[in-house]
Amino acid sequence: QVQLVESGGGSVQAGGSLRLSCAASGRTGSTYAMGWFRQAPEKEREFIAAISWSRDRIYYADSVKGRFTISRDNAKKTAYLEMSSLKPEDTATYYCAASRLYTTNSADFTSWGQGTQVTVSS
Q: Is 80 exceeded by the pLDDT of residue 14?
């Protein structure tokens, strides 16, 4: 099982930017896709973005398309989520996850990080 740890969360003003990181460890000998999700209080976990192992498949949710960028550095075993033009609606706990195959379905991700809080003020 792959262990994941998110970092980089914090509080920013609307219109600001933030970069989240997700460091992987453990059983990472096989290829795996990475995804980012978020969950606000009283809401379901929401898919944000996904990226394949070779970075040739990337998909964004409409709510963040054009504002967020997902990337990964396999040599560093780290995935990133660059967020810009942040809105108060982006306030949530952000989670990274790993899956055996490229997917956008939360149920297909088998490893999850502990989450990092992002708060955007108006």
A: yes
Query: Which of 99, 117, 119, 116 is closest to 108 using CA atoms?
Result: 99
Residue 107: CB atoms within 10 Å: 7
Closest by CA to 51, choosing from 29, 64, 28, 69, is 69
pLDDT of residue 37: 98
Q: What is the pLDDT of residue 30?
A: 82
CB distance 94 to 81 below 8 Å:
yes
Query: What pLDDT shows up at residue 73?
Result: 96
Please provide the DSSP assignment of 51-93 as one string: E-TTS--EEE-TTTTTTEEEEEETTTTEEEEEE-S--GGG-EE
Around Cβ 22, how many Cβ atoms within 10 Å?
26
Pairing assessment for the beta strands 46-51 and 116-121 based on DSSP bridges: unpaired
